[in-house]
């Protein structure tokens, strides 16, 4: 192997050559620097995703990954907040507990309950772009892709809109909390930020218990699984679920929108075809899938081997950390021929792994797709043309083990009349 670790920042920024090398030479690869196994082929990823709970989705820090100051940070979080952000209280658990919690959360995220949000989200997206009417260039990451999912989440959860900046910062800290390789001072800063988020979510839960509404938090409080010995989510679960939805609904959707806008800005013929189509909704659904496939917003997710387990013909020892490399599976040529090409008519684009696979398939995928669709509709309505100000290869990337997205999105545009 010419590259021996995923932890090189250049590799995280542009991981596709590394993925291809692994798929060819060592599709189930032990990264000695990371101290974890990497699964990279589409077929092996689907197999591994189906191994829960043998490959446990409850992923705490292992001795190989936990920093030496982990205990100090956790003690601080108990003093200043509600303790570490415990994955065991959210949907990052194994069956049978997973089925109960997902059932309760899914009651609030059905297509029927989300559909009425579409006009409001489309209006929000349009308002953000209308504010650009006095200019012909902007950073659409800060002016559009970042605020839109925060505004949508505030609408969904009935959060005050004067805390948009704080919510963005909180979501960034949740993402950073599962990153590998950050220094102690940075980790402590993010941990304190998470404590503030915890206090905000707890205060919201208390308020909704007193005066429930139609928002997502209220629906999770009142959701029930009949016949279960614990038919409703308790306060610890509600806190963890609230944090998971905020983090998953902001950073990931921001990157999904940003990469979609990037694709529109770097493919003018595609932009015009979508803008002028009489079947725009159908094409936008295809565009969203191919955009999610070519730019995987959650590149890797961790699992923990509770026993020795065979993946792709390789025995992974008990106690190992395993990263499922969704971004690699999305470029597997055995499933997606000419995978590096953006193909709006790709027949199997919806088989992408960006939302995961198996029983842990992303619970919020409908909301993410809805926000992306509204964002791209608004871009096509408000702009007559759109182009990236820099070369695509010069675009700054913000990548970690958890997330990968543009660090900026500088574009030029002409406004529609």
Coarse shape = globular
Largest sheet: 5 strands, mixed
Element string (H = helix, E = strand): HHEEHEHHHHEHHHHHHHHEEEEHHEEEE
What's the arrangement of strands in the largest beta sheet? 1-2-8-5-3
Gyration radius over CA = 21 Å
Strand content: 5-15%
| Number of E-state strands | 12
What do the pLDDT scores average to? 88
Low-confidence region ranges: 60-64
Distance N to C terminus: 54 Å
> Which percent bin holds the helix content?
40-55%
Based on secondary structure, the structural category is alpha+beta
Notes on the structure:
- The structure is a single chain.
- The chain is α+β, with helices and mostly antiparallel strands.
- The chain has helices spanning 9-13, 16-25, 42-49, 70-80, 97-106, 111-114, 118-130, 140-145, 147-157, 164-177, 184-210, 216-222, 235-266, 268-276, 280-294, 326-329, 365-382; strands spanning 28-31, 36-39, 55-56, 137-139, 300-305, 309-311, 314-316, 321-325, 383-388, 397-399, 404-406, 410-415.
- It is 49% helix and 12% strand.
- Helix 11 packs across helix 13 (235-266), helix 13 packs across helix 15 (280-294) and helix 13 runs parallel beside helix 17.
- The longest helix has 32 residues, at 235-266.
